[in-house]
Amino acid sequence: MKKAFVPASRFTLFSAVIAICLSACTDPGPDASQQQLIASLTEPERKLFEHGQLKAYSCAACHGRNGISSHPNYPSLAGRSANELSAALTAYRGGERKHALMTPQARGLNDADINALAYYFSLQLPAASAATQAD
Questions:
Q1: For residues 55 and 116, is the Cβ–Cβ distance under 8 A?
Q2: Which residue segment(s) compose the domain that 66 sits in?
Q3: pTM reported for the whole predicted model
Q4: N or C terminus: fewer CB in 10 A for the chain?
Q5: Buried b / exposed e across 51-64, counting CB within 10 Å, b at 16+?
Q6: What span, in angstroms and rounded, lies between the C-alpha atoms of 67 and 121?
Q7: Residue 4 falls within a domain, yes or no?
Q8: Considering only CA atoms, which of 53, 41, 122, 128 is closest in space to residue 81?
């Protein structure tokens, strides 16, 4: 006797597949150095950091998670000065600096977003420091 495939089973299977796919896309929690950094910040600094962290999700596709790029065409942002990053984003937004991907990305940012992103990436460990700390 064959069992009939119940539609609820399809829904359950579909839900499981979606859950697995979404879990692969979620950002893992902060590592120990990130947790230590966040704990050392004052409340206004922490809020600025978290604002930058949220905005940085769209940067990760090119510049890598935590601003450490794995692609030679996209620079790492981790550890760069906040002033340098802020000036670059402001120039992209205003059109003084042009790039096919960065100009449209920066146009969607306000001053608070730029300051938060610059602050967030300036506090990230550069690739060499991050690798040394992991060892």
A1: yes
A2: 31-84+113-134
A3: 0.73
A4: N
A5: bbbebbeebeebbb
A6: 6
A7: no
A8: 122
**Which has the closest alpha carbon to 89: 125, 134, 101, 43?**
101
The whole-number average pLDDT for the span 26-49 is: 83
At 11 the three-state DSSP class reads helix
CATH number assigned to the domain comprising residue 36: 1.10.760.10
End-to-end CA distance of the chain: 59
All residues at 6 or more sequence positions from 79 whose CB lies less than 8 Å from its CB, including other chains = 67, 121, 122, 124, 125, 126, 129
pLDDT tens digits for 75-124? 999 999 999 999 999 999 999 999 999 999 999 999 999 999 999 999 99
Look at residues 69, 81, 91 and name the one whose alpha carbon lies nearest to residue 117.
81
Q: Per the domain annotation, does 23 fall within a domain?
A: no
Q: Domain for residue 37, yes or no?
A: yes
User: Number of helices and strands (H, E) in the chain?
Assistant: 8, 0
Write down how long the chain is.
135
d(CA 94, CA 89): 9
